[in-house]
Design brief:
alpha+beta; endopeptidase fold (from Nostoc punctiforme); six-stranded antiparallel beta sheet; 11 strands
């Protein structure tokens, strides 16, 4: 035994059975540590034997709740994002449809306006042809002045029935134009043509449309005295006259001029038919 073993100050203190004990436990989500000892300082007599320190801990249930909450938040965000995209697409489609409708309505209005203008121009052209003024620069006068135009016009060399037809037509120059009339004091265009050809035994239809297809179609560059001139389409003519040679024709033009003799340049015809 060591010599110093008998000296109390050199002895190791014996560990009491209850010298120290460590206890641990989890209560209500907190970790509890308890330390106890048999020997405590003198000034700690009024302190409890056990000192406790509580530390926060994260339980598995809390972790699961947090994860589920994050997933739910993400899903809600995705729902809002999809809804926003759908709303934007619907708005764009509505704007495009509105724009297309406006464009279609504008085109329809323009087409309607153009059709109305074309119809108006056609009516004006028809009216102008039907009522052309007698004082055009290419004219030398109207009425009785035209009745003597054959005196200054070179002879056509017409003989037989053609001469008879020409003589009758020239005798009608200066008479009045009255719609529906066939003579002897007034005529309309087809009435004059029908009556003139009746003088030589040729029976023609009453109206311009039918007279424009009554004979053989001939070219305007190959006209002969007695050819029937028409204005408009064959079968849909709106005016007729008779070619009398030397580039002239005789016709009942309109109420303003009556029956006149005019050059072809006054109102160029659309076509001609030959019945002689």
């Amino acid at each position: 035994m060591s010599p110093n073993a008998l000296i109390p100050s050199h002895r190791k203190p014996r560990r009491s059975a209850s010298s120290r004990a460590l206890r641990a436990g989890v209560t209500g989500g907190f970790l509890t540590l308890a330390v106890t000892g048999a020997t405590v300082p003198a000034n700690a007599a009024d302190k409890p034997v056990a000192e406790t320190q509580e530390l926060p801990t994260i339980t598995t249930a809390l972790t699961v709740d947090l994860a589920e909450s994050a997933d739910a938040t993400q899903q809600v965000a995705e729902v809002y994002e999809r809804q926003a995209a759908q709303d934007k697409a619907a708005s764009s489609a509505a704007q495009a449809a509105k724009k297309d409708k406006a464009a279609a309505e504008k085109k329809a209005a323009e087409a309607k306006k153009k059709a109305a203008e074309a119809k108006k121009k056609a009516a004006e052209a028809l009216e102008t042809r039907a009522s052309r003024s007698a004082d055009r620069t290419s004219l030398t006068g109207g009425g009785s002045a035209d009745s003597g135009s054959d005196a200054s016009t070179p002879s056509t060399g017409a003989t037989g029935s053609t001469a008879t037809l020409l003589s009758f037509l020239q005798a009608q120059v200066g008479k009045a134009y009255i719609s529906g009339s066939t003579g002897p004091s007034a005529y309309d265009c087809s009435g004059l043509v029908q009556t003139a050809f009746r003088q030589i035994g040729i029976q023609l239809p009453r109206v311009s449309q039918d007279q424009s297809t009554a004979g053989t179609q001939v070219g305007l560059s190959n006209l002969q005295v007695g050819d029937i001139l028409y204005w408009g389409g064959a079968g849909s003519a709106y005016h007729v006259g008779v070619y009398v040679g030397n580039g002239n024709f005789i016709g009942a033009q309109n109420p303003s001029t009556g029956v006149v003799e005019r050059p072809l340049s006054y109102d160029p015809p659309s076509g001609a038919v030959r019945v002689l």
